[in-house]
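[recover] target loaded
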């Protein structure tokens, strides 16, 4: 059991909820509402181990997991139910509502479109369905009195498409062709071609429709599936001005982060938990020096780390307590970090909870908290122009300072 259930933040929950916040590392298919998962599973004939929320929380979406593969098992149920436009739109709409309910005004929703491809249902249609759900949240919020009176910032969002390091059977018909190709071709070639196909598709969708596709990601277990297999796809994304983030340093060592930064030219890193894990360095004679130099490189280039504390504690036995997470060291060394949920359902968490437990464990001061939250907006892949982003961030800063004043939280 982690220590998060007993967490008592130095800041009130009301204060933290009222603050404008971001979630830049947020998986759509890991953040469904439990009743919606059950409803869609029945609709689409997806077999669940239980059709009661309590049963699913006991059997699938647990407090802790053995390891990352155990954690990822939940996607075997959530991803298949998102197999038509209506289901994707519903999931996206409800996710936006859940985020707004706790003061998260900017989100970047990520998912792997290739997992949802069906005959007659392509990548463009999949992204369009997700956008419809999120855009409904945006329009509903903008029509509300707090937004029209400029008391709170509007809701904004971006969509990040995830390429996969590898493929497993049982998710979507799309994979039958890919898995068959693995029988006759090297895995690295097949996976790389699949990532390139996705990169081309999302760039085309963005440019043709104007939808807010803001980033390209690489997800899936790192061990045995190096980032270098996907270099061509990420080079294509960069050449077409699509920002990039890469899952790295979550279930593999610092060298995985180095590959993501140097090979894929990542703007941000998803997790980065093993940044300081010198014991996991394999190819350097001085592992301690390696992690020091890597951390300095990350800090100096302002490569933002999308930190997901609860998710990491659930999958890494050595991180069963918040204070053991390297986030504290990241803060001390002034790295660019932002707090994220990863998966609201699978991790059973919220942005407010992530911030609260970090504030308690690492004694985050009011000034540090302000910088931490505002930096999430600044390092976002905001879908508008740079001038529009600056104006939006100014709205956020004004709202933050107003809330802090109302709650008597003074910067020192």
């Amino acid at each position: 059991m982690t220590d998060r259930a007993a967490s008592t933040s130095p800041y009130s929950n009301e204060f933290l909820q009222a603050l404008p916040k971001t979630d830049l590392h947020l998986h759509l298919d890991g953040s469904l509402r439990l009743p919606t998962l059950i409803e869609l599973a029945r609709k689409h004939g997806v077999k669940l181990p239980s059709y009661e929320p309590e049963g699913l929380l006991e059997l699938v979406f647990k407090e802790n997991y053995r390891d990352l593969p155990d954690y990822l098992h939940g996607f075997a149920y959530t991803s298949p139910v998102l197999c038509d436009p209506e289901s994707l739109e519903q999931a996206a709409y409800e996710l936006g509502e859940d985020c707004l309910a706790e003061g998260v005004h900017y989100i970047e929703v990520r998912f792997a479109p290739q997992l949802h491809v069906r005959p007659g249902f392509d990548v463009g249609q999949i992204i369009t369905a997700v956008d419809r759900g999120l855009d409904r949240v945006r329009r509903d919020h903008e029509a509300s009195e707090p937004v029209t009176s400029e008391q709170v910032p509007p809701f904004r969002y971006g969509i990040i498409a995830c390429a996969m390091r590898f493929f497993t059977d049982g998710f979507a018909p799309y994979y039958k062709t890919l898995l068959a190709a693995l029988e006759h071709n090297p895995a690295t070639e097949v996976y790389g071609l699949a990532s390139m196909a996705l990169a081309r598709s999302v760039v085309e969708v963005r440019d043709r429709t104007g939808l807010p596709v803001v980033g390209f990601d690489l997800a899936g277990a790192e061990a045995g599936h190096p980032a270098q297999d996907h270099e061509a796809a990420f080079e294509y994304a960069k050449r077409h001005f699509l920002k990039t983030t890469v899952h790295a340093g979550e279930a593999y060592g610092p060298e995985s982060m180095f590959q993501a930064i140097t090979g894929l030219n990542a703007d941000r890193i998803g997790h980065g938990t093993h940044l300081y894990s010198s014991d996991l360095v394999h190819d350097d004679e001085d592992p301690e020096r390696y992690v020091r130099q890597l951390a300095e490189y990350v800090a100096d280039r302002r490569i933002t780390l999308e930190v997901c504390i609860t998710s990491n504690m659930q999958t890494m036995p050595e991180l069963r307590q918040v204070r053991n997470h390297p986030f504290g060291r990241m803060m001390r060394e002034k790295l660019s970090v932002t707090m994220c949920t990863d998966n609201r359902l699978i991790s059973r968490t919220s942005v407010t909870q992530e911030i609260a437990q970090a504030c308690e464990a690492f004694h985050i001061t009011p000034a540090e908290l302000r910088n931490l939250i505002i930096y999430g907006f600044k390092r976002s892949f905001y879908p508008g122009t740079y001038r529009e982003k600056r104006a939006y961030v100014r709205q956020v800063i004004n709202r933050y300072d107003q809330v802090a004043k109302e709650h008597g939280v003074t910067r020192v």
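[recover] notes: The first strand starts at residue 21 and ends at 27.
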